[in-house]
Structure formats: structure tokens, C-alpha cells
């Protein structure tokens, strides 16, 4: 049975700028917003938009991500015909194996796409926080008679040179593409979300694969080739929440924005566009008598005896009596022991902060450093970790790490 549109979700990113957080974890599997992982957002967008067939292309450290996706049931993607399919690279008769680039990743899965004989294919990124109605994007693509459409957002002109930019006319038709230019002609930044007519995409993927000089990349190769040939290319303006959480500071900022949905634009409490996730299976949280909790997200299984202010606590976090957690992101299974102070930082899963230890500090002036504690790390009693530190190994009691 043919599908009008299927999604191909690029989820093989290493996320090297997240350092300790992605040392043994694919970036799309990084926890976000208390009870989610980054990949929950594109998967939820798909099912909310009526797209019920999704190929998830994995590569770097895929174990946790594969287990998390499972059969797709949390996102209503456990379908007999369609549903979610994990697509790792594999050895083929032609000899290729690892995905060499974004375009090559799709090329290696042409046979999967053709099983569903779609008219359109939407290419998604597995490492962004975004709530987007892809059905509206598809409507735009059809109305324009497009062969290729890209979702774009206006960014400040002084930041435009950091992005791939689309130059478009008054009818949104793309006339030029600039990849991180020194002198930008546009501030329409590509979100890395594309809709192709499948016959057009297949043709350009095959031509790209046959070119030994190609980097096999959408931004560097496929899009310029479409422009060269005068294809019908359009820019779809998106005005909702979108954030590339590719750095420690941007991941911390996005988690903090979850606590202020009225101003930040990201509302995880919206019943009309739910973000679905796998259930932790833990009991409800408990806040003890005398504990202080202010403007924070406290999720399943948390036990709070100390003070938590303007923070996001993931499943199973324990904050003992006298501990202070402020402006912090504390991931699942962490323990903040009695008297410890945790501020302006990210604590990865199953880390332990010892008694009277200090991690991070409130920023002073223009300083915005975010301390980061890696997964499973133990910070000893009385240890001190500075506001810009990245800790991947245990720290002895009383030791200082800057």
C-alpha cells in the first residue's frame, strides 16, 4: 500500500560538542525537558502531523537509541504497514557500509523508501528541539508546485553567517543558497528539514553517489545541484520554536526555557500538540515536608528533601536534606547528597554529588559558563567544581576542579 509521504529521520549524529554527555550516547538520545529525549520531538511531530511511516537512520553509539525507540508504541508508530523502522548502515553488495554523509545515508535506504512508493519524502533531523506541523509544510509544498522545499527561520543578521542561508524572492522561490557565508545576502536560515518529490530526490541521490568528488551531503551537494538545474525550489517560513541543542550552553538554555513557556515559545504542557515519550515506569515524585521547590519541573520517581529552584529534574533524582539545586539540569538517577550545592550546570545520568560538594556557580557579569558532570561520575564530599568545568571522571573529596 503506497504512502503519500514518509519521513526519513537522520539520527546518527555524534554530537561531539556535547562532550561528556555524548561520549557513549548518540545525540538524539540525550535526555531533554525532564521526561523526554531529543528524538521524541521529531517522532511526535510526525504522528501529530499524520505521518505514520518513519525510517530512523542511526550510526554513532546506537544502542540506547535503538532500545528507546523499540517498536514505536509510545508514539503510536507500532504499525503493521508503516510505523517506525531503525535503519543502521549495513554492508551491501556494492561494498558501501558506514553512512558517508546525509545524502549517502538516504541513498543507502532507497530500497526502504521504495517499499512504500511515496510521492513525497520529508527529511528530518534527530538532534533539534522543534514543535512543527509537517502537514502544513506539505500543504505549502503542494500549493507551490515545488520539487524541493526547505523549512527556514529568520535569524538575526549578525548571526546569519553561522547558518546555511536561502535567498528567496517575493514568492518564496529560492534563487540562491549560501553555506555559512562571510557576507550573507539573506537571514533565512535552513532548519535542515526538507520535503522532496521522491522521483526528483531519487534522481539526484543516484547522480550524487556516482560523483567521486561529492561529499554526499544535502547542503554541500544536493541543494546546489538542484539550483544548478533550475528545479522548483521554495522556502517555507517557520515561526515556531526551533533550537539546535548542539552545545552545552544551548542544551542548558533550552531546558531552562521549558520552565517559561509563555515567553520562550516551547510549551511541553500543550494538550493539542503533545510530545510523547517512553514511560520511565517509576512511581510518582515526593516532596518532603520542609523541602522548598520553586518554578521547577520535577518528574517521576524524584525524592526532594532539600531546595530546588528554577531547575529541571529528570526521573529518579534524589535531593537530600540541606542540598541546594538552582538553575540546573539534573538527569535521571542522580543523587545530590546532604549539604551539596549545584548551580548553573548540567548533571548527567546516574552521577552522585557528595555531601557539601559544590558544582558550578551563578554567572557573574558576562560569564555564562555551564559546569558539566558526565554520566555516572562521583563528586566526592566537599569537592568543588568550577563554573566552566567538564568532568568525566570521579573527583576525590576536597579536590577542586576548575
TrEMBL record:
Entries under HAMAP family matching the protein: GlgC
Higher taxonomy: Bacteria, Bacillati, Bacillota, Clostridia, Lachnospirales
Gene3D superfamilies referenced in this protein's UniProt entry, alphabetically: Hexapeptide repeat proteins (2.160.10.10), Spore Coat Polysaccharide Biosynthesis Protein SpsA, Chain A (3.90.550.10)
PROSITE patterns for the chain: ADP_GLC_PYROPHOSPH_1 (PS00808), ADP_GLC_PYROPHOSPH_2 (PS00809), ADP_GLC_PYROPHOSPH_3 (PS00810)
InterPro entries named in the record: ADP-Glc_PPase, ADP_Glu_pyroP_CS, GlgC_bac, GlmU/GlgC-like_hexapep, NTP_transferase_dom, Nucleotide-diphossugar_trans, Trimer_LpxA-like_sf
Binding site for alpha-D-glucose 1-phosphate: 99, 164, 179-180, 190
Site feature Could play a key role in the communication between the regulatory and the substrate sites, where: 59, 98
Pfam families recorded: Hexapep_GlmU, NTP_transferase
Protein species of origin: Muricoprocola aceti
Pathway entry: Glycan biosynthesis; glycogen biosynthesis
Name under which the protein is recorded: Glucose-1-phosphate adenylyltransferase
Amino acid at each position: 500500500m503506497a504512502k503519500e509521504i514518509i519521513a526519513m529521520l537522520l539520527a546518527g549524529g555524534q554530537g561531539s560538542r556535547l562532550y561528556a554527555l555524548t561520549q557513549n550516547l548518540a545525540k538524539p538520545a540525550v535526555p531533554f525537558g525532564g521526561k523526554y529525549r531529543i528524538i521524541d520531538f521529531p517522532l511526535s511531530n510526525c504522528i501529530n502531523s499524520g505521518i505514520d511511516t518513519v525510517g530512523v537512520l542511526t550510526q554513532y553509539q546506537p544502542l540506547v537509541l535503538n532500545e528507546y525507540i523499540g517498536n514505536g508504541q509510545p508514539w503510536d508508530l507500532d504499525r503493521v504497514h508503516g510505523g517506525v523502522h531503525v535503519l543502521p548502515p549495513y554492508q551491501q553488495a556494492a561494498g558501501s557500509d558506514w553512512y558517508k554523509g546525509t545524502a549517502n545515508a538516504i541513498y543507502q535506504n532507497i530500497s526502504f523508501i521504495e517499499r512504500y512508493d511515496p510521492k513525497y519524502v520529508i527529511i528530518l533531523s534527530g538532534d533539534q528541539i522543534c514543535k512543527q506541523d509537517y502537514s502544513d509544510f506539505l500543504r505549502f509544498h503542494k500549493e507551490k508546485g515545488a520539487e524541493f522545499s526547505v523549512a527556514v527561520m529568520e535569524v538575526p543578521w549578525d548571526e546569519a553567517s553561522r547558518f546555511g542561508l536561502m535567498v528567496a524572492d517575493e514568492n518564496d522561490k529560492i534563487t540562491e543558497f549560501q553555506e555559512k557565508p562571510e557576507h550573507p545576502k539573506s537571514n533565512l536560515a535552513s532548519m535542515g528539514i526538507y520535503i522532496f518529490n521522491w522521483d526528483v530526490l531519487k534522481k539526484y541521490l543516484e547522480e550524487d553517489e556516482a560523483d567521486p568528488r561529492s561529499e554526499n551531503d544535502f547542503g554541500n551537494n544536493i541543494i546546489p545541484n538542484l539550483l544548478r538545474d533550475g528545479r522548483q525550489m521554495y522556502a517555507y517560513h517557520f515561526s515556531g520554536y526551533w533550537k539546535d541543542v548542539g552545545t552545552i550552553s544551548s542544551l542548558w538554555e533550552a531546558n531552562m526555557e521549558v520552565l517559561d513557556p509563555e515567553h520562550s515559545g516551547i510549551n511541553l504542557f500543550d494538550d493539542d500538540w503533545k510530545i510523547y515519550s517512553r514511560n520511565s515506569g517509576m512511581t510518582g515524585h515526593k516532596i518532603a515536608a520542609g523541602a522548598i521547590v520553586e518554578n521547577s519541573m520535577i518528574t517521576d520517581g524524584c525524592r526532594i528533601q532539600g531546595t530546588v529552584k528554577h531547575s529541571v529534574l529528570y526521573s529518579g533524582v534524589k535531593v537530600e536534606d540541606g542540598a541546594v539545586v538552582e538553575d540546573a539540569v539534573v538527569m535521571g538517577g542522580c543523587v545530590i547528597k546532604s549539604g551539596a550545592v549545584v548551580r548553573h550546570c548540567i548533571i548527567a545520568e546516574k552521577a552522585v554529588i557528595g555531601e557539601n560538594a559544590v558544582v558550578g556557580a551563578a554567572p557573574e557579569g558576562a560569564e555564562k559558563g555551564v559546569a558539566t558532570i558526565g554520566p555516572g561520575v562521583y563528586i566526592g564530599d566537599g569537592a568543588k567544581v568550577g563554573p566552566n568545568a567538564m568532568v568525566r571522571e570521579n573527583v576525590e573529596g576536597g579536590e577542586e576542579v576548575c
